[in-house]
């Protein structure tokens, strides 16, 4: 198992060049052109902005417009900036601050949290898949924490737990409200998703990413193109950009906007909506400065079987289900133990797709 973090490599004395086992071109599973030659970018000014406060507006006109905008953002983008979400800017800054402090701790203190298995509730590591035997790496260290149904936090840094708890309680409320708005945007009963996916026991995973300053950012990637496995991911970041999302075949640089939360749709929203709201491909490039991002994936309960067949969406419209029903935990295991390659996990359960390997 790899025990050298990307941060340690980045801090080697006199490091002028990136070691070749971090070159993106060497990743056998990386099927898109490398970041360096991928110049087909689009402007991020088009990304939808959703005003959270309007979702709960008592003015019926305002409310239904907000729900429609939310539905459109999910259907046509799979990504939006959430503003007026009610989480204090100072709390978001504090969380980024304590996360930064975590990654700045001595390596031996961080590796205490290395975990061994996919479902270990606290895991520090580097590159992408914890258990894979990859010999080529991504320029990224991570801390993954299960926040729900049980809350887990490292004991250090000192106030990490307290700040995290506050942020995660608030972000859960935002996510639940968004999911009920999404149900509504589909013409379904508001509570349908929370009931059928048992969101009161929903799995929530925090992934904190640390992308160290890199002397040759054009040669590496922080994270390869992938989609997230849950229903919705809520992401905050420091003021260094690096996230890119794919829209209409082009990569779009997402520039951080203070006090906003980036939301993206995950594979299980795609399954639940039978392909109407698709999960979106995104990746992380790195910079000459260190970058931190913190995402919380809001997911079905681990033992929920996610199946489009349960949804009135396809029952009402008599559409054939496009995805094989699967227990949520099995899907997570599959996604977390294979090299990341676009939406290959979701492809595995598409009906009429090649059988599971
Ligand atoms: O660093 C980012 O902006 C994206 C991170 C991400 O996609 C993930 O953790 O799944
Ligand atoms: Fe992601």
Automatic annotation (TrEMBL):
<feature type="domain" description="Fe2OG dioxygenase">
    <location>
        <begin position="202"/>
        <end position="300"/>
    </location>
</feature>
<dbReference type="Pfam" id="PF14226">
    <property type="entry name" value="DIOX_N"/>
</dbReference>
<dbReference type="InterPro" id="IPR050295">
    <property type="entry name" value="Plant_2OG-oxidoreductases"/>
</dbReference>
<keyword id="KW-0560">Oxidoreductase</keyword>
<comment type="similarity">
    <text>Belongs to the iron/ascorbate-dependent oxidoreductase family.</text>
</comment>
<dbReference type="GO" id="GO:0009805">
    <property type="term" value="P:coumarin biosynthetic process"/>
</dbReference>
<dbReference type="GO" id="GO:0031418">
    <property type="term" value="F:L-ascorbic acid binding"/>
</dbReference>
<dbReference type="GO" id="GO:0002238">
    <property type="term" value="P:response to molecule of fungal origin"/>
</dbReference>
<dbReference type="GO" id="GO:0046872">
    <property type="term" value="F:metal ion binding"/>
</dbReference>
<keyword id="KW-0408">Iron</keyword>
<dbReference type="InterPro" id="IPR044861">
    <property type="entry name" value="IPNS-like_FE2OG_OXY"/>
</dbReference>
<dbReference type="InterPro" id="IPR027443">
    <property type="entry name" value="IPNS-like_sf"/>
</dbReference>
<dbReference type="InterPro" id="IPR026992">
    <property type="entry name" value="DIOX_N"/>
</dbReference>
<protein>
    <recommendedName>
        <fullName>Fe2OG dioxygenase domain-containing protein</fullName>
    </recommendedName>
</protein>
<keyword id="KW-0479">Metal-binding</keyword>
<dbReference type="GO" id="GO:0016706">
    <property type="term" value="F:2-oxoglutarate-dependent dioxygenase activity"/>
</dbReference>
<dbReference type="InterPro" id="IPR005123">
    <property type="entry name" value="Oxoglu/Fe-dep_dioxygenase_dom"/>
</dbReference>
<dbReference type="Pfam" id="PF03171">
    <property type="entry name" value="2OG-FeII_Oxy"/>
</dbReference>
<keyword id="KW-0847">Vitamin C</keyword>
């Amino acid at each position: 198992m790899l025990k050298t973090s990307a941060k340690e490599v980045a801090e080697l004395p006199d490091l002028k060049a990136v070691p070749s086992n971090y070159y993106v071109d060497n990743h056998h599973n990386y099927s898109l052109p490398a970041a360096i030659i991928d110049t087909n970018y689009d402007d991020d000014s088009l990304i939808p902005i959703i005003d959270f406060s309007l979702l709960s507006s008592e003015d019926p006109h305002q409310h239904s417009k907000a729900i429609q905008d939310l539905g459109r953002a999910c259907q046509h983008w799979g990504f939006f900036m959430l503003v007026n979400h009610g989480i204090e800017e100072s709390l978001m800054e504090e969380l980024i601050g304590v996360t930064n402090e975590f990654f700045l701790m001595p390596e031996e203190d961080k590796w205490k949290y290395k975990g061994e298995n996919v479902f270990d509730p606290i895991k520090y590591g580097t590159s992408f898949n914890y258990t894979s035997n990859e010999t080529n790496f991504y320029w990224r260290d991570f801390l993954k924490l299960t926040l729900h149904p049980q809350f887990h936090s490292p004991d250090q840094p000192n106030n990490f737990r307290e700040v995290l708890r506050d942020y995660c309680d608030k972000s859960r409320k935002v996510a639940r409200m968004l999911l009920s708005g999404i149900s509504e945007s589909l013409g379904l009963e508001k509570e349908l998703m929370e009931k059928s996916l048992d969101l009161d026991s929903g799995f929530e995973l925090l992934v904190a990413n640390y992308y160290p300053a890199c002397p040759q950012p054009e040669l590496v990637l922080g994270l390869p193109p992938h989609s997230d496995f849950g229903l919705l991911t809520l992401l905050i970041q420091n003021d260094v950009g690096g996230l890119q999302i794919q829209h209409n075949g082009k990569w779009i640089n997402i520039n951080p906007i203070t006090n906003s939360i980036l939301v993206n749709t995950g594979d299980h929203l795609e399954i639940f909506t039978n392909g109407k709201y698709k999960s979106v491909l995104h990746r992380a490039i790195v910079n000459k400065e260190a970058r931190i991002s913190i995402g919380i994936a809001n997911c079905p309960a681990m033992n929920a079987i996610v199946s489009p067949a349960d949804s009135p969406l396809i029952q009402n419209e008599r559409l054939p289900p496009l995805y094989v029903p699967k227990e949520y935990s099995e899907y997570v295991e599959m996604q977390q133990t294979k090299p990341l390659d676009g939406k290959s996990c979701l492809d595995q359960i598409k009906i009429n797709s090649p059988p599971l390997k």
